C-alpha cells in the first residue's frame, strides 16, 4: 500500500499538472514522443508539430484557370551567392503534372521522386499520361502510413499538385496527415490562411492564367508589403492545349504585375 507521504506527492503532482498549459501537460505525460499515440484530446501531437514545420516553409499559390493551371512559389532566396534555378520549389512530375511543396524540402524530395516514378510507370505500362489525382492519392496514402506505424515520424511537408487531365486543369493539395482535396485555388506554407482568405475574395473561375498570376502576385505584394520582390518568385504553368509546361523566374514575371 502507498504511504501517506507518497499519496500526498501524487495528489500534489496531479494538482500541479492540472495547472500546467495543455501543451506542457502533453509533454509531461509523453503524448508527443511518438507519432502513433493519441493525446486525451484525440490529437497526434507529432503530426501537429509537422504541420507547424509546414507553416514555417515558404508559400505557394496554385490556381485553376480557364486556359490551364499554374503554381506560383516564393523561393525565399536572399543570398546572392545562390543560383535561383538550383533551388526550385516547383517540380516537374511529368510533362502534364507539376508539384509544389512547403515544409522540410528533403522530405518533399522523397515524395516527388515517388510521384515521378508513378508517372513514368503509367506511360510504360498503359502508354498514357497518369491522372493527377492518382498521384496525389498515392502520396497521401504514403504520408498516412507514417502517422500510423511506429518507428518513423510523419513527413513534414504539404504538397500541391496541378495538372491537365483530358484537357481539363486540376489542382490538389495534400496535408501532412494524408488527407487530400481538389481546389479551384489554394495555398500552402507561410500565411496560408491569410492567402486563402484573399483567394476567396478575389478568385474568379473565368480567370486566364495571365490574370490569375497577376492576382496571386498582388496577394503576395499585399502581404509582404515592403519585403515584396518579384525577383524571388518562380512560376510554372500548363495550358489545356498542348500540355507543355512553361517555367519563369524572377524578373520574367514582371509583365504579370503591370
Supply database-style keywords.
5-stranded antiparallel β-sheet; 23% strand; alpha+beta
A few lines on this structure:
This protein is 38% helix and 23% strand. The protein has helices spanning 4-19, 22-29, 45-55, 105-126, 132-145, 192-202, 209-224; strands spanning 60-65, 68-74, 90-94, 97-103, 157-165, 168-174, 180-182, 185-188, 233-239, 246-249.
Outline the fold blueprint:
Layout (H helix, E strand, L loop, with lengths): L3 H16 L2 H8 L15 H11 L4 E6 L2 E7 L15 E5 L2 E7 L1 H22 L5 H14 L11 E9 L2 E7 L5 E3 L2 E4 L3 H11 L6 H16 L8 E7 L6 E4 L9
Antiparallel strand pairs: 1-2, 1-8, 2-9, 3-4, 4-5, 5-6, 6-7, 9-10
Provide structural commentary.
By secondary structure, the protein is of the alpha+beta class. The chain contains seven helices and ten strands. It has helices spanning 4-19, 22-29, 45-55, 105-126, 132-145, 192-202, 209-224; strands spanning 60-65, 68-74, 90-94, 97-103, 157-165, 168-174, 180-182, 185-188, 233-239, 246-249. A five-stranded antiparallel beta sheet has the order 8-1-2-9-10. Strands 3-4-5-6-7 form a five-stranded antiparallel beta sheet. Helix 4 packs across helix 5 (132-145) and helix 6 packs across helix 7. It is globular. The model is unreliable at 7-17 (pLDDT under 50).
How big a fraction of the residues is strand? 15-25%
The Cα radius of gyration reads 22 Å
- Residue stretches low in confidence (pLDDT < 50, at least 5 long) are 7-17
Structural class given helices, strands, pairing?
alpha+beta
Strand order of the largest sheet: 8-1-2-9-10
Number of strands: 10
Separation of termini? 79 Å
Overall pLDDT score: 86
Global morphology: globular
Quaternary organisation? single chain
Number of helices: 7
The main β sheet shows up as: 5 strands, antiparallel
Amino acid at each position: 500500500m502507498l504511504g501517506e507521504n507518497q499519496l500526498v506527492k501524487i495528489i500534489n503532482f496531479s494538482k500541479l499538472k492540472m495547472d500546467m498549459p495543455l501543451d506542457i501537460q502533453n509533454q509531461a505525460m509523453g503524448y508527443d514522443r511518438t507519432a502513433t499515440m493519441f493525446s486525451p484530446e484525440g490529437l497526434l501531437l507529432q503530426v501537429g508539430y509537422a504541420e507547424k514545420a509546414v507553416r514555417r516553409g515558404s508559400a505557394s499559390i496554385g490556381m485553376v484557370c480557364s486556359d490551364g493551371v499554374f503554381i506560383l512559389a516564393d523561393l525565399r532566396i536572399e543570398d546572392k551567392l545562390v543560383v535561383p534555378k538550383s533551388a526550385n520549389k516547383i517540380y516537374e512530375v511529368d510533362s502534364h503534372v507539376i508539384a509544389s511543396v512547403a515544409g522540410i524540402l528533403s522530405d518533399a524530395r522523397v515524395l516527388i521522386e515517388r510521384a515521378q516514378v508513378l508517372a513514368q510507370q503509367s506511360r510504360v505500362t498503359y502508354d498514357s499520361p497518369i491522372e493527377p489525382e492518382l498521384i496525389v492519392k498515392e502520396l497521401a496514402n504514403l504520408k498516412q502510413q507514417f502517422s500510423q506505424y511506429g518507428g518513423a515520424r510523419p513527413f513534414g511537408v504539404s504538397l500541391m499538385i496541378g495538372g491537365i487531365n483530358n484537357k481539363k486543369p486540376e489542382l490538389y493539395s495534400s496535408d501532412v496527415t494524408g488527407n487530400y482535396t481538389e481546389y479551384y485555388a489554394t495555398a500552402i506554407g507561410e500565411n496560408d490562411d491569410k492567402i486563402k482568405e484573399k483567394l476567396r475574395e478575389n478568385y474568379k473561375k473565368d480567370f486566364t492564367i495571365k490574370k490569375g498570376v497577376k492576382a496571386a502576385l498582388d496577394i503576395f505584394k499585399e502581404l509582404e508589403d515592403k519585403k515584396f520582390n518579384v525577383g524571388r518568385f518562380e512560376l510554372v504553368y500548363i495550358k489545356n492545349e498542348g500540355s507543355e509546361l512553361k517555367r519563369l523566374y524572377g524578373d520574367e514575371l514582371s509583365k504579370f504585375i503591370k
